[in-house]
Amino acid sequence: MEKNRVEAFSDGVLAIIITIMVLEMKAPHGEDWRALKPVLPVFLSYVLSFVYIGIYWNNHHHLLKAAHRVNGNILWANLHLLFWLSLFPFVTGWMGENSFREAPSAAYGSVLLLAAIAYYILQTLIVAEQGGRESKLAVAIGRDWKGKLSPVLYAIGIAISFIRPWIAGTIYIFVAFLWLIPDRRIERIVTE
After folding, report:
1. Cα–Cα–Cα angle for 46, 120, 59, nearest 5°?
2. Per-residue pLDDT tens over the stretch 80-92
């Protein structure tokens, strides 16, 4: 299958995910700035999830651009990733509506963790299809310290959610900031 179809489908799914998240946000009741206070957790959870979806979209785009071809395993791995990302509207809404409480924060972290694992599986299959450890893509990815650190931090965030949910939220925000720092390794492969 041509990778363009996988990219187009994935882009469409991610656009729908963002649309669903924003449609879940309700306008505040009231006409002054104080009316925003009750919906602030919903807005903040939306912003965090929007950033995460953006990070996945950006990295997914570069990963597929670096790929020369896709196979059936890659297609299923891509669907696996999209499944976990499609749960973002649910956990985002739950966490925001409940002001970042214990169970919603743990569920949010679980979706982050499972999406990270799914992305790792997709990346591994694409690298294998492109020639394995000796391929340019594998060399560009290197040791992928952010990809290995993120699931560990998500797991810590999940555990801490039941004790101090605000610390879990801080961990999730920290990981997002890690990924916001541009990583030009794969981008260089695409331009070559």
Report:
1. 55
2. 999 999 999 999 9
123-147 pLDDT, tens digit per residue, is 999 999 988 888 888 888 888 899 9
Whether the predicted pLDDT of 173 surpasses 70? yes
Q: Which residue has the tokens 């996988």?
A: 6
The total number of residues written for the chain in this structure: 192
Q: What distances in angstroms separate CA 60 from CA 162, 187, 188, one per listed residue?
A: 31, 11, 15
Count of Cβ atoms closer than 10 Å to residue 158 Cβ: 20
Count CB atoms within 10 A of the CB of residue 144.
15
How many C-beta atoms lie closer than 10 Å to residue 57's C-beta?
18
CA distance 82 to 80: 5
- Tokens representing residue 171 in the block: 């961990």
Whether the Cβ atoms of residue 119 and residue 10 lie closer than 8 Å to each other: no
